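Re: folding output
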Amino acid sequence: MASLIDRHTGFVAALRAAGLPVSVAEGLDAVRAMRAVDLLDRGALRAAYAATVVKRPAHRPTFDTLFDLWFPAAVGDGARAVRDPDRPPRTLDGAGRPVPPALDPEVQARRTELAEILLTGDDAGLRQFARGAVAEYGRTPGQESWFSSSVLRAMSPETLMAGLLAAVLNGRERGGMAERVARRTFGDRISRFQDLVAAEVRRRIAEDTGVARTARLAVRPPLERLDFTSASRADMAALRREAYPLARRLASRLVQKQRRGRRGRLDFRRTVRASLASGGVPLTTHHRPRRPHRPELVVLCDASDSVSAFAHFTLLLTFALREQFARVRAFAFIDTTDEITRYFAPGADVADAMTRLAAEADLVWITGRSNYGHALEVFADRYGDAVGPKTTLLVLGDARSNYGDLALPVLRTMVDRARHAYWLNPEPRGQWDTGDSAASRYGDLVPMYECRNLVQLAAFIEELA
């Protein structure tokens, strides 16, 4: 029982470390749910845990990966050995080297077996086959670890598609609905096999190096906690979808802040009418309601290599913000500044805009290294009229200027002219003011917020209330 408690505690801790919000109460709910299921039924145990600790569908893949590590379906080779451990992992040629998979009769026999399983859609058989394939081909000769690439290279499941389609279509015309459905079905099954191989390799590595260490290396944080600086192209596509609701909330917060901060003009007629109740003394003044208007936004974005992924996201955010503000002007800089609003015209594709920006924007003055001082001076000289009393100024960058001039008086003038000004810094707060960072000096002029992921961006928007 102690082992189960330790495993439960470690599993919940791993979920939290991966970014899933699991409270103490939810951990206790999971323990109570375990009392209602058969602990030997792994599927029921997985469902009980998921029902109590998973809050969003996007968190489910992370949960499943960690569950498979902390509650594995097998130990070692599983219930039965798939091969003699003393037998060489591959057929060898006369020189003692492994025969290429295409010429190895054992590999070809295993591929034929895989094709039959994919054809029938036997998920249990596919799981067992993946376990055996990792045992046979997952450990590269002379290596100390396990690799999914060697298994997939030997089995080459994608190359089985033509034979699978031929077996299903049985001479029917190609290119029709039947082929499209069959191709999608077999594509899903091949992806399932690849996922099973990856899960089995992780399980093997966890047995060799420890579950906690493998969990840290194998699991990426959920999208809302993914560091902008490490986002991939696919992550950026998902982040773009999340940027639109955040843009609407940001615009709404700024309008509310403006409405509460200033009253409308004096309503003379209502004030005089109310004064009749106090003998003509205007004890209470009435004001006309302010006309809400969509605020203007100016985005000044560091586009240097050190924050390139963060700059990519901020440009996606700018793309979404233009629909919420009356006027959005975007500027990028490295050691000089250029306006990039033209690349994000209505109907423009974000990927094409990024490509054009990288090729055409004039962001390099001399060195191509960050120079905040010169960039701010160029902005004030060329585009100073962009900032006015209706403008919200949003600066995005790590405040690292390679020990150059900071142009603090220039920034102070811009901030005084704007209605609001904020600075989002993608670096962890603990790294501010280290090395060439001027975070605190800029932060004295502009409220600076750490913004590394969607959670921190949402928290910044909430603080504007």
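--- second protein (sequence, then structure) ---
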Amino acid sequence: MRLTDRHVAFVGALREAGLPVSVAEGLDAARALGVVDLLERETLREAYAATLVKRVAHRPAFDVLFDLWFPAVVSGGVSGADEQGPEYDEKSSVEELRQVLQGFLMGNADGPAFREFVRGMVGRFGRVPAGAGRQSWFSYQVLRTLSPETLTARMLDQLLAERGGLAEKVARDRISGNIRKFEEAVAADVRRRIAEESGIERIARSSVRPSVDRLDFLRATKAELAQLRREVYPLARRLATRLTIRQKRGHRGRLDFRRTVRASLSTGGVPLTTVLRPKRPHKPELVVLCDASDSVAGFSQFTLLLTFALREQFTKVRAFAFVDTVDEITKYFAPGADVLDAITRMTTEADISRFGRTNYGAVFRRFEERYGTAIGPKTSLLILGDARSNYQPPALDTLRRLTAQARHAYWLNPEPRDQWDSGDSVATAYGTVVPMHECRNIAQLAAFIEATDGGTHA
């Protein structure tokens, strides 16, 4: 493949992975190729990154794709060291190889020797017989054989003995970081080999984790939810701004007599220019109803983080969680509280579940009965949930009465739109009462916020 073809395919793969790469930026990257040493792979990587990557969150996906389109080595290359390093052939026992790995993990898990070791281990232990069309290389086989985690205690004792002044936490963090580097290097070499056998495009689509703004809330891991926490506060500020009506001076409000008279002094006392009082900006209040059932666990954790952040932006926020009954959880999210502690307290102390099966109709009726006065003409109502009610009556009339009292009402649904109304979903029926928006990730939430019109009633 020619360099220009590889460049075009690489840029296309970045776009397919969700990175916003414009035509102009692709051309900038192409121009950069003419001023860098193409044989210096890391220089080439940074030239591409400087011209194509806009956000830190997009860098991991970029690195994975760069390693696929511009691999460090190609199988069967010079000296054959790619398949199996000369020092790590079949004569070396597993225990001897673990000793070599321990040396890398205690020192610098980087450099040519480390990468050669990784390629040798993948070449020796990573291949698994597979049928036609199935991948034949696995990281799991390598990691299970060498089992780097089981070396931690031994390495920690040795490292502390050799460097007596080194704190145990520092030593443990260094070892853990090097183990992650080894695991990532093994995974990268496995992907390279699969790409050579099956095609780069095929492995690229399955290898790249979505960037943080495109992580599916329903499938996010704990580590990914921690990443999402950093995205919450800017979104909360933007949502509060969009729901606040900002009036412009001039065409609205009552006559400002004093300022009109003052302006008339320049025209001999004739009030040629009238000055109107600006209306006071609407101070928004927010009521959040959050589905906390297991079916939307990842989404509910994120929405509770959002609720916590919104408390700092609105004049008044009341938060409620539900499964088959509803309870107010505002007190758990008091300013200054730790958000994770608040979520833990909510799950153990709040009365949100009695039978363990989501029942939206019962929740709306219970909410109207106990907390109906929480919604008023200054209130924005935000409902967060998948609209799956286990085939129970949806109580549409109750929801209609609640939303009629609110200034605005919105519903964010974490399920893909093509799954709405499947099974026990009542999404379309609820959507006739409250505008329902698909909200599976940060990007869709940001798009919803940008489209939100604070001056329009639901």
